[in-house]
Amino acid sequence: MSRKLSIIIVNYNSKGMLKDCLASIQKHLTVDYEVIVVDNDSTDNSIALCNEFESLERFKIIRAAENMGFAKGCNVGADAARGEILHFLNPDTALQQGADSDYEKVFLNPDKVYVTPLFNRDGSVENARMEIPLLKEIFLWNTCRSKAKYWCRGASVIISRENYEKVGRWCEEYFIYGEDMDLFYSFWKHNLEIITLEVPVFHYGGGCSQNVWSNLQREIIVQKSFRRFFRRHSNMLHYTLVKLYYLMFNLIKHPKRVPFDIKAWYKSMF
């Protein structure tokens, strides 16, 4: 039996946050939905904590034999999903009261892409939009932001199955970091309008990578993903120019960060 909405959660060592996420879905949603959890071979007890949900008709847990990465996990979840609308949601999030009304808006206008406002642990609003790191877009971002292409964090992205297939799904060349930027660039290339919904999702952070890697290790992975984006959508000369721009920007705005950036950039090349 098909459903209107499939919520797809890729989990890796999210501890109790995954259980809290599932509980928030069960508490706040009355629309026709299902939840697909793809577990990337977690080594903590995050899945064991969720046994109570697995027996429910609306919830399904897929246990991968290895860590496939976030993008492939999303695609595996989408393949198993039966919904017309796909909501890719991080395990370190929690839905809030009123989420039903936002989903109803999506059902009425499924031709658009939707993101939800993200609130941090302290209640502050998470930075929702970031510039696509291409020279033209960086220029527009700093001069006429309303015309610049942007991307949003992949913690909460809603898209119809039709458009998900149209843009080419999540790019599995990325293991973690950069896949959301790549996906949003595909939205722009396919002229899909991106709408921010009203009801926020709490994003607690640290659901995966912060529990596994040091800051330097994480930044090295980010740099490798950054290069992959340019190989897919531009060229390496463009990549070098953009990297120099960001280094100069940090030299002016955040000089203490520059040695760390250079070290991570160098190590990411090997």
What would you say this structure looks like, in words?
The protein is α/β, with parallel strands linked by helices and 270 residues long. It folds into 2 domains: 3-212, Spore Coat Polysaccharide Biosynthesis Protein SpsA, Chain A; 213-270, no CATH class. It is built from 10 helices and 12 strands. The strands form 3 sheets. A 7-stranded mixed β-sheet has the order 3-2-1-4-10-6-11. It has a 3-stranded mixed β-sheet with strand order 5-12-7. A two-stranded antiparallel ribbon has the order 8-9. It is globular and about 55 Å long. 35% of the residues are buried.
Would you summarize the structure shown here?
The chain has 270 residues and is of the alpha/beta class. The chain is 41% helix and 19% strand. It is globular.
Q: What keywords describe this structure?
A:
single chain; 270 residues; alpha/beta; Spore Coat Polysaccharide Biosynthesis Protein SpsA, Chain A; 2 domains; 7-stranded mixed β-sheet; 12 strands; 19% strand; globular
First-last Cα distance? 48 Å
Rg, nearest Å: 19 Å
CATH architecture of the largest domain: Alpha-Beta Complex
Q: Counting H and I runs of at least 4 residues, what is the number of helices?
A: 10
Assembly state: single chain
Whole-number count of domains: 2
How does the major sheet shape up?
7 strands, mixed
The count of β-strands is 12
List the uncertain runs: none
Could you tell me the mean pLDDT?
A: 92
